[in-house]
Amino acid sequence: MKRAVAVVAGIVVGIAFAGPVVSFVPWLPAPLRNVYVVWGVAALVVAVSARAAWTMSRPRRE
Question: Is residue 31 part of a domain?
Fold first, then answer.
């Protein structure tokens, strides 16, 4: 469980730094350079992967 928390924390910190960096990439279309769009998409990815990891880690009922 501690490892999962550390991985999610690392992803969140990476997203926090990636948002402003992506806003300076000149070849991306304007909507994708928006920091909040990057953060929103990344938060959605983190939420889906956390849900999948939680579902897979639960013991199966028989």
Answer: yes
- Is 62 part of any domain? no
- Residue 35: give the domain boundaries: 1-57
pTM summary value: 0.52
> Which spans in the chain are helix H?
2-22, 35-57
Question: Into how many domains does the chain fold?
Answer: 1
* Cα–Cα distance for residue pair 57/41, rounded to 1 Å: 24
Q: What whole-number percentage of the chain has pLDDT above 70?
A: 89
Select the more confidently predicted residue: 51 or 62: 51
